[in-house]
Amino acid sequence: MSRTPSSAGFVHYLRVVVTPLPPDEVLLAALRAGDEEVFARLLDGWSASMLRLARSFVSTAASAEEVVQDTWLAVFQGIGRFEGRSSLKTWVYRILVNTARKRGVREQRTVPWASLSTDDGPTVDQSRFRGPEDPYPDGWLTFPKIWPSTESEVLAREVRGVVAAALEGLPARQRVVLTLRDIDGQSADEVCSLLEISTANQRVLLHRARAAVRSHLEQYYAATTGGAS
Amino acid sequence: MTCAQLVELVTAFLEGTLDSETERRFVEHLAICEGCEIYLDQIRRSIDEVGRLRAESLSEETRDRLLDAFRNFPRDS
C-alpha cells in the first residue's frame, strides 16, 4: 500500500464495496470467542472512519493511527464487560473519542466542543438575495446555476479533490459530524449519542458543513465553466 | 417563506424534522421557485460527493499488529 505523508494524501478516493456486518449479538459472540475473520472485517470496515474521526482531535495522521490502535486494544480488554446498552459501533467509537481527546489534550490540540460561536448566522451569502426594498425581498437575485454532470472521470476526480479540501477546511465539530453522517452513514441519533450533543446542535453542525461544501463546489463550477449561464 | 429562509431549512427538511406546517410551506415554495429547487439539488449533490470520500486506511503494519494482538489476547474460555 502506498502512503503519502502530505495532507493531500490524507484522502484516498476508493469506493470500497462493503458487505453488511452481522447483527451485534453475532459480532459480540465472535469477538469474545476470538473469531479472527469477524475481527478482520470489523477492522477493515471501521478503521477508515475511525482514523478520520481520530484525526479531528490529534495533530498528525500517525497520531490518529495510534489512537485507532489503542482503541482496539481497549476494546479487546473491555469486550467481556460490554453490556449492549448502546450499539457495538457506538461503544467502540466512544472509546475512540475518549482516547483521541486525551491524546489531543496532551498534544495541546483540543477541540472546543462547547463553543458555538462559529455556528451562528446564515449559511448562504446574503448578497445573493434581494434587499428589503425589492418587490421580492429575500428572493434570489439570480438563481444558482445548474451544475454540470460529473460523468468524466477527470472531472469527477477534481470534484472529489475540491470536496476533500472543503472538508479539511471545516471547523472540527462540523467536520466530525459531516464525516460521521455523510461518509460513514451513521444516523443522527447515533451521532448525538456518540458526541454527546443535542439533536438541534447536531443538525446545525451538519447544516453548516453541507452548506460550506456546496459553496466550495459552486465556486469550483463557476470557475471551470467560465461563468457561462 | 422566502428563499433566504428556505436555504436555512434544507437540512431539517432532508432530516424530516420540520413541523408539518413549515414542511407544507417549504414544499409549496419549492414547487414555484426554480432557484430554491436548484439549491436543494446542489445540497443533495454535495451530500453525494462527500459520500464518495473515504478516509485512508490503516497501515499494513498496524493492521497486522492488531490482528496479532487479537489472536493472542487472553480469553477465559
- Class computed from helices, strands and strand pairing of chain A: mainly alpha
Please tell me what the overall shape of chain A is.
Answer: elongated
- Strand residue percentage of chain B: under 5%
Average pLDDT level of chain A: 84
Ranges of chain B where pLDDT stays below 50 over 5 or more residues in a row are: none
Q: State the CATH architecture of the largest domain in chain A.
A: Orthogonal Bundle
Class from helix and strand fractions of chain B? mainly alpha
| H/I helix tally of chain B | 5
Distance between the termini of chain B: 64 Å
- The topology string of helices and strands of chain A comes to EHHHHHHHH
The biggest sheet of chain A amounts to: none
* Element string of chain B (H = helix, E = strand): HHHHEH
Total helices of chain A: the number is: 8
Helix content of chain B: over 70%
Q: Over the alpha carbons, how many angstroms does the gyration radius of chain A reach? A: 21 Å
CATH topology of the largest domain in chain A: Arc Repressor Mutant, subunit A
What's the CATH class label of the largest domain in chain A? Mainly Alpha
Count of all domains of chain A? 2
Helical content of chain A (DSSP H or I, runs of 4+): 55-70%
Return the average pLDDT of chain B rounded to an integer.
93
Major sheet size, sense and barrel closure of chain B: none
Keywords, please?
heterodimer; A: 229 residues; mainly alpha; Rna Polymerase Sigma Factor, Chain: A; Arc Repressor Mutant, subunit A; 2 domains; 8 helices; 56% helix; 1% strand; elongated; disordered N terminus; B: 77 residues
Can you describe what's shown?
The complex is a heterodimer of chains A (229) and B (77). Chain A is mainly α. Chain A is 56% helix and 1% strand. Chain A has 2 domains: 7-106, Orthogonal Bundle (Rna Polymerase Sigma Factor, Chain: A); 117-224, Winged helix-like DNA-binding domain superfamily/Winged helix DNA-binding domain (Arc Repressor Mutant, subunit A). In chain A, helix 3 packs across helix 4 (88-106) and helix 4 (88-106) crosses helix 7 (188-195). Chain B has a domain at 1-52. Chain B contains 5 helices and 1 strand; from the N terminus they run H-H-H-H-E-H. Chain B has helices at 3-6, 10-15, 20-32, 34-51, 60-72; one strand at residues 54-55. The longest helix of chain B is centred in the middle third of the chain and has 18 residues, at 34-51. The radius of gyration of chain B is 23 Å and the shape is elongated. At the A-B interface, strand 1, helix 2, helix 3, helix 5 and helix 6 of A face helix 1, helix 2, helix 4, strand 1 and helix 5 of B. Strand 1 (11-12) of chain A pairs antiparallel with strand 1 (54-55) of chain B.
